[in-house]
Amino acid sequence: MILVLVEVSPAGEAIETSREAVTFARDLSAAGGGVPIDAVVVGSPDDALVKTLATHGVRRVHALTGPAYDAFSGAAWAAGLMAVREKAGAVVVMAAGTPRGNEVLAHVGARTGAPMAANVISFGGLSPFTVTRQVVGGAALEEMQLGMRPAIFSVAGHAVEASAADVPGDGELVVETPEVADADLVARVVSTEEPAPDLSGALKSARVVVGAGRGAGSADGFGELLELAELLDAPLGVSRVVTSLGWRPHHEQVGQTGSRISPDLYIPCGISGAIQHWAGCSSAKAILAINSDPDAPMVTKATHAVIGDLHEIVPAINEEIRRRRAG
Ligand SMILES: Cc1cc2nc3c(=O)[nH]c(=O)nc-3n(C[C@H](O)[C@H](O)[C@H](O)COP(=O)(O)OP(=O)(O)OC[C@H]3O[C@@H](n4cnc5c(N)ncnc54)[C@H](O)[C@@H]3O)c2cc1C
User: Which is an annotated Pfam family here (predicted)?
Assistant: First the structure.
């Protein structure tokens, strides 16, 4: 049996990436000759959720209930998943590659001693059980063999498109109340708050983005860069160093842990082009790098580059734009 942890939204629906994981499980099931797929959800699912999972091919929906499951705890969810797995004999344990999915599966891996592959995008065969997964924030792919059972892996978001099965599953609801040790409840969510409003929208959809990195020099070093951004009607996008130092707000960050941008023109000034920054800007159609180091990765990858001090080059560009517009 293939066991898939399905995360449920506050509205009581299976989240899209979990439905993608179930869709991925169907391919595995077919490769294994029709291995049944069971889902584990935390809490009491309503009929609509059970029906949705059945539509996606799920045979049984195991609902983990009890006070231990009132709030998220990676260890407690893993204990529940393990209890269902031992009772029902799963050979594969999966989840969506969300922060929670990866955390819970890491606990399952630690408890079983089996390796866990995070953010898998495809599987290459059952013997040996081989998967391909994203590493370095999606910048590289790695092939991994999962020789032990259960095979444990999470599915990277949007690696497959969630879809209904040709033949729906039975969708039988099984209520589970597994024992959870006190030690598994030590780290659990005690309160939640609404996320801050997403202010990065302009950055993600901009045609031109002016970038600024450590080369700006200090929190006071952004004057001419902001001026260039205003002249080009472009938002400012910055590196993580800049946000970590508190020079600019986090919603301006570009990269693996910031916004992914795809403008017609990106103008990174004083940004080295570390792989985590590149992950967020590599879709730019053209890059004009301004940097004092001719060997900086951003310079070597750029469409065009100006080598020198940004505090001299950017004011000169601003001046030229103003002069041409005045003319
Ligand atoms: C898990 C993880 C996630 C991360 N996520 C992100 C992310 O989302 N986004 C991100 O940006 N980083 C991210 N990082 C950090 C990343 O590895 C780099 O440390 C960061 O991008 C470097 O920022 P920087 O280019 O501004 O600084 P530096 O690497 O220090 O580069 C500064 C550049 O400025 C140039 N320079 C200096 N002075 C001048 C001047 N006067 N004029 C012109 N050029 C000048 C230098 O030649 C150099 O190329 C992440 C790191 C980790 C480990």
Answer: ETF_alpha
